[in-house]
Amino acid sequence: MTEKTVEMTEASLFPGKRRLPQVNPVYFVLAALLCAIALSNPNFLEPPGYLNFLKRAAPLAILAAGQIYVIVSGGFDLSVGSVITLTVVGSSMLLDNNDDATWWVILVMFAIGAAVGLINGLVVSYLRVPSLIATLGMMITLNGAAFMWSSGSPRGYLPDTFRFFGRYNIKGMPLIQFLPVALIVLVVVGIALFWLMHRTNLGRLLHAIGDNPRAAQMSGVPVERIRIFAFVISSLSGVTAGILLGGFAGVSTDVGTGYELQAITATVIGGAQLLGGRGSVPASIAGALTLAAIFTLLNFIGLPKPTRDVVQGLILIVAVVLATYRRNRAGGR
Amino acid sequence: MRRFLTTTMAIALLAHTAQAQQLNFDDPAEFAKQRDQLTAKANGPEGEPWVQYYGDSMVDTAKYKKDGPYTICFSNAGVNNAWRVTGWTNMQAEVKLHPEIKELIHVDAEGSDDKQIADIDDLIAGGKCSILIVSPNTTAALTPAVEKACAALPVVVFDRGVQTKCPISFIHPVGGYGFGIQAGEFVANNVPAGANVLMLRIVPGVDVLETRASAAKRIFDEKGLKILGQEFTEGDNAKTKSIVEDYLQRGNIDAIWMDAGATAVAAIEAFEDAGIPVPVITGEDQQDFLQKWKTDGLKATAPTYPTYQWRTPIIAAVKILKGESIPGPEWVLPQPAITAESLDTYVNDKMPPLHHAMCGCETLPAYPAAWGGK
């Protein structure tokens, strides 16, 4: 019964999809940007060029792949940036320069992340607080907690065992010379989140509650539980991104600042519909790579910073307009 | 909502550029003056730079003389970066050295001009303050608030300035040009003419940072160095490392000049990860950079914007309330750079990564625990 209703919702959601298969424009935008990067700097085509690019984009890509769960279910998760900060600051405090502690510290961080997601989800689902407000509150709380924990300045280093995931390159690979561990993490997490969203019933339910929560509830979808699940996934992606970012660049007390908006922007560039019902994991990852590519391209071209900001803003707007245009053509709202 | 987010982001990006350089941050006279001060001999006790000063100008403070105990009020721009955390810790410890101080009332403006203006109003209205210390968030915005405070209380300003002469003294180290000169000359003296220099900066539009960059640029231009670019890192490690990686793909970097040291280690790691030797680099007095410098034997220097200047306003406030004259209307403190020769004095792996070593805090109460050390 549930299954049937959901299928109907799914079909009404994408009326044009099956008749008119289209490629998401984000892939064209990304391809164009990558070509532009390669033209402005041929070294980008060498393994160190593109692998460093992917390594650096991995945290945002994972974050976007987690954020899309919340976006599809009809919410926002503004707390992920502060989850990143808390992960980096908390890990450096707990590790206390002790290599052996890495494993349990990472587990503790994931537990904290899951708890954060659970609270976000409970507040949104049962206390009926709009997710924008609930997660904004969580963001402020967690940033404050990270500040209190560290007194505003990092108190320790992250040992190499922790930084392995975000910094280390596996050397001596055939063809590509080296393989960043962060890229492996991205691929594994990306595939897992793709599978969960697009190959399981759970993913279908997520789309259903984002598209029309009332209808979903009436047809027996456990809206609250699904929504909580989405927030937990998003928070866990924040912890993962935090581990990679801390690994890539070390401790700083505002490392996560701004990442929540970047993640949301990445999903929108990937064609997700804010307020729910539509979005895809691969396209969100492509959206994140697009954002990273804009940054890299403008770095390579060597424009002065103010010009670069203007260009960056314009490219963002164009990318979002393209995504919207496609949605309108496809008959979405 | 979607449109809202996009617009907000675009506006935020544009606003960033709008604060372009309107003030003169490249003043040859000020450059020359600060260059002289760097090598001049300061007055005051040897080994205690936080009470030393340049020049002979003193202010008579007899009219502010008052019986203790004193309540010192402090309107702080923020405790929002590691430099200010170290400085604020210094100040609290300095207070403990003065039994005549009954209370230090601290209000944190959290980096907001509006809040700081309101904070100062509240402190004046509260009527508890014997004296007011202000560390302004931004220069122009806080000027009227400081003028208002001057009418009601003795006022001391430190760190960033205000555009009024009404405070009894404005305490600050030599300045931004001095910082830029120290780092710039080190680079110029250690690379051949025509070498490629990458300038890494935090943000545009902040006077003490703009002057650092303009001074260094002046030196690079004189020496005929090629400036690869002036990049803004927003003090972000990941962004810094990405920028340097991208520049490394485009070509050779002979020197890195930085206007602040918090992300110096991230810049160094970009070279390490690419398997390229670390070039000549300038940072600041953060412990993580000093330790990296020492362990890896880098060719480096560390100009400082000394956090010991946070001790000075307390010392000045007590002197004022006792009617003793102090250096003024400007109290210019020495601004030493850490060099290869003095590095060992400042490296201390018991202190946290972003502890600023030029803190003058080693003899203060509760050192090192209060600074996060072991």
- SS content category of chain B: alpha/beta
Q: Which geometry of chain B do the CA atoms define? A: globular
Largest interface: A-B, 48 and 49 residues
Largest sheet of chain A: 2 strands, antiparallel
The proportion of strand residues of chain A reads under 5%
The CATH architecture designation of the largest domain in chain B is 3-Layer(aba) Sandwich
Structural class of chain A: mainly alpha
Shape descriptor of chain A: globular
Unreliable spans of chain A: 1-12
Helical residue percent of chain B? 40-55%
Q: How much helix is in the residues of chain A?
A: over 70%
Number of DSSP helical runs of chain A:
14
What is the total domain count of chain B? 2
Provide the CATH top-level class of the largest domain in chain B: Alpha Beta
CATH superfamily of the largest domain in chain B: Response regulator
Rounded to the nearest angstrom, the distance between the terminal CA atoms of chain B is 49 Å
CATH topology descriptor of the largest domain in chain B: Rossmann fold
Describe the overall structure.
The complex is a heterodimer of chains A (333) and B (374). Chain A contains 14 helices and two strands; from the N terminus they run H-H-H-H-H-H-H-E-E-H-H-H-H-H-H-H. With 333 residues, chain A is mainly α. Chain A has a single domain, classed as ABC transporter involved in vitamin B12 uptake, BtuC (Orthogonal Bundle). In chain A, helix 2 (25-40) packs parallel to helix 13 and helix 3 (47-72) packs antiparallel against helix 11. The longest helix of chain A has 27 residues, at 223-249. Chain A is globular and about 55 Å long. The relative contact order of chain A is 0.21. Residues 1-12 of chain A have low confidence and may be disordered. Chain B has 374 residues and is α/β, with parallel strands linked by helices. Chain B folds into two domains: 49-174 and 306-334, Rossmann fold, CATH 3.40.50; 176-301, Rossmann fold. Chain B is built from twelve helices and 13 strands. Chain B has helices spanning 2-18, 28-39, 82-96, 113-126, 139-152, 176-190, 207-223, 237-250, 264-274, 287-296, 312-321, 343-346, and strands at 58-59, 70-76, 101-108, 131-135, 155-158, 169-173, 196-201, 226-232, 255-258, 280-282, 300-301, 326-327, 330-333. In chain B, helix 5 links the parallel strand 4 (131-135) and strand 5 (155-158). Chain B is globular and about 65 Å long.
